[in-house]
Amino acid sequence: MRDLQERIAALEQQIQKQAASQDDAAKGRTVSAGELAAQTVKSTLLGESDQNGHTLQGVVPAAPLYENLRDAETKIARLQEQVKSFEFHGYFRSGHGLNNRGGHQVAFKAPGADAKFRLGNEAETYGELIFVNNWLNPEHNSDSAWMKAEVMVEGNTTNSASYANFNGGIGNDQFRLREAFIQAGNIFKSQRDAKFWAGERYYRRYQAHLDDFYILDMSGYGGGVEDVNAKIGKISLAYLAGARPDVVTQHGTYAKSNVDVRLYDINAPGGKAGVWFNFATARGGKTQDGSVIPNARGYAFGVAHNRLEWHGGYNWISFQYGTGAASNFSTSIDDPSAFIKDTKRLRFAQHLLVQPNDKFAIMPIVVYQRTKDGNPRGGWNEWISFGARPQVFFSKYLSLAFESGFDRTRSSDGQYEGWLRKFTIAPQIGGGRQFFSRPVLRVFATYASWSNGLRGWVGGVPFQDRTRGLTYGVQAESWF
Question: Residue 229 CB: number of other CB atoms within 10 A?
């Protein structure tokens, strides 16, 4: 397309120079350079050639020059529209590491914690490939309605070996279809920002990058509408569901339904506020082994405040509480039990990014969570986590990242109780001077230590009888 556009520009210059000097002698005329360029463009676009397979040369054009230009420009416009209609996005991280005992890299994560500090602590290759096709109005910038379809494939492997096959052909690669949905917008003139959708998708997730922790993740199957203008803010309404194919009752596969309602982008002191409510139900029954799963329902709600453009970054703070089937803040279903209707969860989270200049950035995070499994004889599981990742930029491409994190966990049944500390240093080659500049190449060294109360719970086999460990390696990370 770029080549054709350059040739058309050259052609137009030739036309201006030679318009007054065309020789229309009765016996025929020589094709001008401008006309020849037009024929070349047209033959390239439309596939025309002479009997010998060469592009047209030295032949009087059958159509006026301006028609050749019009045809070429029309073809280019169509090609541009086709290019805009398709999008390809994605994310991946990949690398390899070893532990100080000589084996493969392991991750240091506290038992009972929903996440781990990730820098230099990811022992897998993970990727997401997103394919989007815009069926109507690709640029979404006119008064016309638009529609798009999105499909995302997720894959991961353990970094064990390239094209790994073990145990008679069983490999360690996993692939999942995580998104397959259609979205449409600008349907009603009174609600031009409203978007309708149906299928499987990541649904309005809130993530803390430092430990890859999803504060709220209602991803799943369903449909709904979002970004409805409610004057004071925006509203989204969705039906979302999940099922457990490994749990079957006389009613069929055990499933959970959720009605998710959100009001967000509310003007508040210092930024924007939002509220969230979810009502969930799960039909119980008798399983094939004779155990009984009770019917369960529950609700969950949350409030959040987000301050954008704050010291070169942002500040996010949220509070959530849930009961019963809605207590996990997700469409997924926990292992069903006789006490599922009495489960509870409380979560507070804050994460922020500060980047006052192009030489330094830091991202801290704080999480406090208490969970009750519903058993009246049990107590609360507790997870406290805080840490930060400062990053120093020496040039546009060179930086040094540090990460320090602390987790303390306690189980209600007394299986474990203790703390985990983790520290990482990682020199990096990156794509810019921003905290989120990608792609990035890094080498890392990670040191972790933990209390006796977590001995045997951290680091897997290499560190099952120890309370400290070291890993090191290389990693690449990018999103696009």
Answer: 14
Domain count, the chain: 2
Range of the domain at 30: 2-78
Tell me the pLDDT tens digit for each residue of 385-412: 999 999 999 999 999 999 999 999 999 9
Q: Is residue 182 part of a domain?
A: no
Single-letter residue type at 301: F
pLDDT tens for 411-435 read: 998 899 999 999 999 999 999 999 9
Q: What is the pLDDT of residues 202-247, one digit of tens each?
A: 999 999 999 999 999 999 999 999 999 999 999 999 999 999 888 8
Q: HEC string of 328-388?
A: CCECCCCCCCCCHHHCEEEEEEEEEEEEEECCEEEEEEEEEEEEECCCCCCCCEEEEEEEE
Task: Say yes or no: 8 and 118 in one domain.
Answer: no
Element (H, E) at 429: strand 417-430
Q: d(Cα 348, Cα 252) in Å, to the nearest integer?
A: 36
Could you give the CA distance from residue 70 to residue 416 in angstroms, rounded to a whole number?
A: 75
- Of 18, 45, 78, which closes a domain? 78
User: Is 221 inside a domain boundary?
Assistant: no
Is position 21 within any domain? yes
Has residue 388 been placed in a domain? yes
Determine the average pLDDT of the residues in 439-458.
97
Which CATH number covers residue 380? Answer: 2.40.170.10
338 and 442 inside one domain? yes
Q: Model pTM greater than 0.70?
A: yes
Asked if residue 439 has a cis previous peptide bond (ω within 30° of 0), the answer is yes
Residues 322/276, Cβ–Cβ less than 8 Å = no
